[in-house]
C-alpha cells in the first residue's frame, strides 16, 4: 500500500483559490489510480475527483466540475487538486486516496475502490 501525505490546506475567502497536494511514498506511484475525497462535519466522505495512472483521464463530481482540477506529477510522486471559485460548501477535510486496481476512473468513485488513504488536510472557505 502507498503511504500518502496531504498538505496545502487552509483558510480562504469565497471566490478564492487554493491548491492542495498529496505526496506518495514508494516507487509504484505511477501505477496507482489516485483520487481526492472530502468530508464535511456531519456528512459522509464523498468523491471529488479522480485521475488515471498516466494522468490522461480525469473525472469529477458534478459539484466541483469546472472549478477544480486534478493533476499528477509521477516524477515527484505527487497528485494535486487546484480549487478555484471556492464556495463555503467546499469546506471539508480533503483526503487523498490511491489504489493499483485497473479500471475506468469514472466508475471507481466509492471509498471501497481505494485501499490507501492519507490523514487529510482541512480546507475552510469563509463567506
Structural account:
The structure is a single chain. By secondary structure, this protein is an all-beta fold. Helices cover 0% and strands 46% of the residues. It contains no helices and 11 strands. The protein has strands at residues 4-7, 10-13, 18-24, 33-39, 46-51, 58-60, 68-73, 78-83, 92-99, 116-117, 121-126. The strands form 2 sheets. Strands 2, 4, 5, 6, 9, 10 and 11 form a 7-stranded mixed β-sheet that branches. A 4-stranded antiparallel β-sheet has the order 1-3-8-7, with no helix packed on it. It is globular, with a radius of gyration of 13 Å. The N and C termini lie far apart (38 Å). The model has no long low-confidence stretch (mean pLDDT 95).
Layout of strands and helices, then pairs:
Elements: E1 4-7, E2 10-13, E3 18-24, E4 33-39, E5 46-51, E6 58-60, E7 68-73, E8 78-83, E9 92-99, E10 116-117, E11 121-126
Parallel strand pairs: 2-11
Antiparallel strand pairs: 1-3, 3-8, 4-5, 4-9, 5-6, 7-8, 9-10, 9-11
Give the integer mean of the pLDDT values.
95
Given as residue ranges, the uncertain stretches (5+ residues, pLDDT < 50) are none
Residues in β-strands, percent: over 45%
Q: Distance N terminus to C terminus? A: 38 Å
Query: In total, how many beta strands?
Result: 11
What is the helical fraction, as a range of percent? under 10%
| Rounded radius of gyration (Å) | 13 Å
Largest sheet: 7 strands, mixed
Q: What structural class do helix, strand and pairing data support?
A: mainly beta
State the helix count: 0
Order of helices and strands: EEEEEEEEEEE
Give the overall shape.
Answer: globular
Amino acid at each position: 500500500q502507498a503511504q500518502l501525505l496531504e498538505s496545502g490546506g487552509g483558510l480562504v475567502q469565497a471566490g478564492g483559490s487554493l491548491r492542495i497536494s498529496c505526496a506518495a511514498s514508494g516507487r509504484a506511484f505511477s501505477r496507482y489510480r489516485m483520487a481526492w475525497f472530502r468530508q464535511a462535519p456531519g456528512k459522509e466522505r464523498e468523491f471529488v475527483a479522480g485521475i488515471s495512472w498516466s494522468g490522461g483521464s480525469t473525472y469529477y463530481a458534478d459539484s466541483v466540475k469546472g472549478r477544480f482540477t486534478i493533476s499528477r506529477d509521477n516524477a515527484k510522486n505527487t497528485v494535486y487538486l487546484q480549487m478555484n471559485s471556492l464556495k463555503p460548501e467546499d469546506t471539508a477535510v480533503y483526503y487523498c486516496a490511491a489504489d493499483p486496481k485497473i479500471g475506468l476512473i469514472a466508475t471507481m468513485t466509492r471509498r471501497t475502490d481505494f485501499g490507501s488513504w492519507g490523514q487529510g488536510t482541512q480546507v475552510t472557505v469563509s463567506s
